[in-house]
């Protein structure tokens, strides 16, 4: 008997089975699952012969071409972990009609977000219904740039988070976001911070193998066609491997240009 694991905690899905068992892992979101149940290959009876939820055999009527797995009877709380096992006969494949109902959703409510002088960003949330990563973004170079990621706790109560960020000179803006299976990001409000550090300067060093900054900074290098070539954080960049030509350089809060000779 072959097992197929469908893990919604990691947003992966496999249904390429010919027989055996389908295992769905996810979190309870208050909705039930619907299953299409073909006839068995022998033509006698239906494909599925047993369904369990967290190890308990369901009382749902599965001897039908389509049926509902009623999760409400288990008194789950929103965000509770669920494992559903669907056992089927040889040479037939059931179909899960709405597998997305077990995927974590972004439902967080932000209660506070702030940043201190040491560059520690902290935020507090409630109403999470599944573990999803928080992506930390900083506004630089007239765009939002990803600068970190923290795994969400997925609890409905109070959740506290913190991360070290790297403010640039002058006025800074940060925010966090989550993206669930809908692919639509949900953003926190922005938090502002003013750094008293002086602006960063740079100069290419002959024989044009390095770019040296006045202090450490986040940077990006783009070629003439707008393709990203290098990015990172540091006080210098090794450009020995770049082809000769003109490049755009994002650093600190500025955008400059340089030529590799």
Keywords:
five-stranded antiparallel sheet, 21 strands, 261 residues, five-stranded mixed sheet, mainly beta, 0% helix, elongated, 52% strand, Immunoglobulin-like, Jelly Rolls
How many strands, what sense, and barrel or not for the largest sheet?
5 strands, mixed
Number of separate helices: 0
Order of helices and strands: EEEEEEEEEEEEEEEEEEEEE
Which percent range describes the beta-strand content? over 45%
Q: Work out the count of structural domains.
A: 3
Arithmetic mean pLDDT: 90
Overall radius of gyration: 26 Å
Which overall shape is indicated by the principal axes computed on the Cα atoms? elongated
Determine the structural class based on helices, strands and strand pairing.
Answer: mainly beta
Description:
Helix content is 0%, strand content 52%. The chain has a five-stranded mixed beta sheet, with no helix packed on it. It is mainly beta and 261 residues long. The chain folds into three domains: 3-102, Jelly Rolls, CATH 2.60.120; 109-195, Immunoglobulin-like, CATH 2.60.40.10; 202-260. 23% of the residues are buried.
